[in-house]
Amino acid sequence: MMQNVHLAPENNEDDLYSGYNDYNPMFDTEDLENDVAFQQAARTSHGRRPSSKAPLTSSMGRPMTGTIQDGVSRPMTAVQAAGYTKAAVRGSSFDPLGQARGPASPLEKKTSDSLEEKMRQLEKKVNELVEESCVANSCGDLKLALEKAKEAGRQERELLRQREQIAPPESINLDLTYTVLLNLASQYVANEMYAEALTTYQVIVKNKMFSNGGILKVNMGNIYLKQRNYSKAIKFYRMALDQITSSHKQMRIKIMENIGVAFIKTGQYVDAISSFEEIMSISPNLKAGFNLILCYFAIGNGEQMKKAFKRLIEVPLEVDYEDKYISLNDDLHTNLLIEAIKNDSLSQIERDRCVDAVKASHYVELANDLEINKATTYLRQQNFNQGNELEQATNYADLAVNSDRYNPAALTNKGNTIFANGDCEKAAEFYKEALRNDSLCTEALYNLGLAYKKLNRIDEALDCFLKLHAILPNSAQVLYQLANIYQIMEDPNQAIEWLLQLISVVPTDPHVLSKLGNLYDTEGDKSQAFHYYCESYRYFPSNIEVIEWLGAYYIDTQFCEKAIEYFERAALILPTQVKWQLMVASCYRRSGNYQKALEKYKVIHRKFPENVECLRFLVRLCTDMGLKEVQEYITKLKKAEKLKELREQRIKSGREGSARSRKEGSADSGGTKGERLSAKLKALPGTSEPYENASYADPLGPQPERPKTAARKRTEEDDFADEELGEDLLPE
């Protein structure tokens, strides 16, 4: 043991680094191969120990990892997650993720071979076939529609057979079966295969599982009616009528009409009368009333014919004349169509024969009512040439008042004729008399408010419309009149409040929205004004005043590029007015796009070669841009200015001649012509305004002239009330 102890020599006590190169010979590995003891220990260590020794066990009593038991080593499973296996051989790479094994095998697909999945796919196919059949029928391909319906029937039967094998009868899809059969029967009818259609309908009707199958007896009755088998048609109609409850009123009425028509076809007029009488007692309509008159005529019962005719004329026509015959826009095609409807052959018969025929009979009172209704219809259609024959209207109004002095409708119409003649004071008396007889006569109250407004009795007009608002709180006409009256009274806040209520009733009316924008603009609230003007433009992008305001707003806010859109729209609406095209060019110039401005001015010059303002800007732009064509435009400008001077001289001489004629009291034709010329020339722009074509025709059509009021200057608000919200008198 002392042989490994090294003592430091006494003569090197001061050497601090001595001993660093010395090492224990036990760590010398160069001679390990020749070391017999080490080689013996290596051969007998760990797993190569002699088997005579007992295997080591853990504290739990199981063999330890790596222990050989019965010739088999216990696997080292604790290191498998790191990629180690007992089969690892020398030279194998470290592969903890198992990438060397390649990609994982694909997921196993779900098999669709099950019977339930097949039935689900088959049901989907049946629905698709029914849909394709309906589409083909709507496209007019009746043969293809029938083929698809038949195929759907075959597939549905196959589905039913398979479902019965694996499921109880309660699981059958009855709705699908009903749909397939009904579609098949309908396609048979469309192809005029009536026998097959009846057979299919019988299958549905006889199946008690279809709760609504009985209603299809109506379809079977229709088929028999087409086959002229009227007795069977009546039978099936009556069977269907018995199965339809009274809650389906309209359906029962239609079936009874069919029964009556079938009786007429068989000559059984008494039975037909019974059907039509029942209809007229439950829900009168024109068709049933007319057929009832024919049946009474067929049996020769004139007295009952008269009664049936009276009941017929009491049936409401269900025609809204205001919506059907009044043009609500300026579309030329729509206006032409309405004119054609007004003057078609049926309207001619109504005007020329109906009233005259009744006049010739002993029903003179009925003729008077028809005349009044005819005049009212003309007024609703705004056909004033026909409806506003004041002398004739006055005569009929007098007849109505004389026949019944206490009739509010007659008094209101009498007041309307006086109002049309301009005597608003006297008209107001008739309206008040009508209100004394019937305080809820809204037409008389409304017209009384209009009469007071024309008489400039604003407080009384306001009182009338406030009363009317209490009766008709959602009337757009009344709400507008209230707003208009407050505007006349110079109370813009109240006017705005009423207009806000109005747009809650008619939220898409562009004129009301523009009126709100105008009021807010007057009050200085530009943001609200901009909002309502934009809304008005969205619903009616052809209002020139709205377009002009929006364009000016964007110019004021230094967004000239956005203003171009609105001025281009105005130029499109009024192509003969140079003003809007000059504004477009001006916007390009203000935004710094001089090249676009130059091109636009050139386009304007080609359309309006004598416009001085356009030529001036062309000269200025060409000079600033150093273009050679500036001299050409200077020459054209001089010529245009000379023509303008000559025109102004003619205007001046014309005005002087007209003034002399008026002074001398001359009534000759020359003076009249001079006055007309002077009136036309007054409309021409001044020297600083852009030139506009004097022969311009408004593409939106001429605006109807409105009566003027001497007591108060007519304003734009009143014109709007006349045109849009019924300032015209309301006939009773």
Automatic annotation (TrEMBL):
SUPFAM superfamilies from the UniProt entry: TPR-like (SSF48452)
GO cellular component terms, A-Z: centriole; centrosome; ciliary basal body; ciliary base; ciliary tip; cytosol; intraciliary transport particle B; motile cilium
The TPR repeat ranges on this chain: 214-247, 253-286, 442-475, 476-509, 510-543, 544-577
Keyword Iron-sulfur: no
Subcellular localization(s) per the UniProt record: Cell projection, Cilium, Flagellum; Cytoplasm, Cytoskeleton, Cilium basal body; Cytoplasm, Cytoskeleton, Microtubule organizing center, Centrosome, Centriole
Segments of skewed composition (Polar residues): 54-70
GO MF, one annotated term: kinesin binding
Domain of life according to the entry: Eukaryota
Biased composition (Basic and acidic residues): 649-666, 705-716
GO biological process: inner ear receptor cell stereocilium organization; intraciliary transport; kidney development; non-motile cilium assembly; regulation of cilium assembly
Quaternary context: Component of the IFT complex B, at least composed of IFT20, IFT22, IFT25, IFT27, IFT46, IFT52, TRAF3IP1/IFT54, IFT57, IFT74, IFT80, IFT81, and IFT88. Interacts with IFT20, IFT22, IFT25, IFT27, IFT52, TRAF3IP1, IFT74, IFT80 and IFT81. Interacts with IFT172. Interacts with IFT57. Interacts with IFT46. Interacts with IFT70B. Interacts with C2CD3. Interacts with ENTR1 (via N-terminus). Interacts with LRRC56. Interacts with DZIP1. Interacts with CCDC38. Interacts with CCDC146. Interacts with CFAP53.
Protein name: Intraflagellar transport protein 88 homolog
Protein's organism: Chloebia gouldiae
